[in-house]
Amino acid sequence: MPTNLLLIVFDTAREDALRPDAAPAVRDLANRGRWFAHAVAPAPWTLPSHASILTGRRPSEHGITGAAVMSSEGPRSTRPAIEALGDAWLPDGLRRRGYATFGSSANPWIGPALGFNHGFDEFHESWRHAKLPKLGSPLEVRTGGDSSLGRYAKAARVHARRMTGRGDGGAEYSLTALERFLDSGRRPFFGFLNLMEPHAPYVPPAGNGVGGRKRLEALSAVRRWTADRMILFSLGRDEISASDLALLAEMYAAELRYCDRVLARTLELLDRRGLLEETVVAVTSDHGESLGEHHKLSHVLSMHEPLLHVPLVVAGPGVPSGRDESVTGLLALAPMLAGLASGSWAEPDPDRAVAEYESASNQVSAGERIEERFGGLTEDQRTMVRSRWVAAYEGRFKYLVSSEGEEALYDLEADPGETRDVRADHADVVSRLAGRRGTWAGAEEGSAEALDEEIVSHLQGLGYL
After folding, report:
1. Residue 315 — left, alpha, or beta (φ > 0 → left; ψ -120 to 50 → alpha)?
2. Tens-digit pLDDT profile for residues 113-144
3. pLDDT tens-digit profile of 217-267?
4. Is the whole model's pTM more than 0.85, yes or no?
5. Which of the listed residues 61, 102, 213, 326 has the most CB atoms within 10 Å of its CB?
6. How far apart are CA 107 and CA 119, in angstroms?
7. Contact between 70 and 362 (Cβ < 8 Å)
8. Cα separation, 212 vs 163, whole angstroms
9. Domains of the chain by start residue, with CATH
């Protein structure tokens, strides 16, 4: 029988927070398989990165980007673009090969409204069942029929859960749904989980390292640092105190500790059913998170390593064991899983260690509305908002080039903080990596069906629209 496959994406998990030496369950999985010590996300935000993870194609190749969502009439679905991919869309390709396919997502970007349920026999939107929803305020989401009193009552319940840490961002629901799916006995299976806990606002469940009075102080910092304020900080128009930054970092780390526990429970779930030894499990992230480095917060306006260096551990039948120190693009993951489904292993192509950023305008607003949203931007800040970027890797080197003609080459071994441009010393490396630039992502406006009001409201609450 073909090998079962389970892909777990911890949304917004940077590598240094979920590496084997920091996370026991990740370590246990790595001991059974391969730890890719320098994995590169294909984009620094959710939508294009997930599409790349599930296709093995760059954002400029698959076209499932913010530009495809944004239009002059409002946000649009990327469903037609996903359906047009055929077997290149991993869930659909595996289903055509006889796999039962299961998906669960805690991120509203990754779900039926955008077409991400395509190819899945069963798909759950676990964000709808979150006890600690990823929104600045529960009042930011208004669904049809809710009275003002009902919304305030819901807000009070959610606030109480945040204070006490009861519940999570949807992981518990996803595990329950996965358990039911496994008990259905459909084999072979492909499972996909997007778990949203590390995404801001950072509100970890209780028992993960931030409790008591410290939790109340941290929650106050989380409320102060909304998505919009993080963007203003990243533009250089706001400052964060050392104490607030430390509190945000502690809450983020607590979210990742919870993720590791979720992974442990997932592996136990497979083991109890006798499935662990016949299932390839891949754990990764769509992108990382800035925690003050380079004067950035969240995952906007940056192509630095805190956003692009992500965890990647793969274990199971046919996976060579050991630590892989080479640079590995997540563009290799879909072909890797498709090959393992047939019992074959191919080493990742180093030329696919590439990332693209379609600009902050396409990530967090429609067109140039981000400039209207925040107002008073300097010319340098407008350039920062509009610039599109490509990063290409070769060994210890990382090459960056923007649509505005900016360039840099970093030696990540000698300078992991990316502070010194070494192009002048390595012209040959620049020449080779410049050839991998390709086309820019995110050039076309979407024209498919409009997103429904509830999805738009949730994305607005997360700071994207």
Report:
1. beta
2. 999 999 999 999 999 999 998 875 555 555 54
3. 999 999 999 999 999 999 999 999 999 999 999 999 999 999 999 999 999
4. yes
5. 102
6. 18
7. yes
8. 9
9. 4-354 (3.40.720.10)
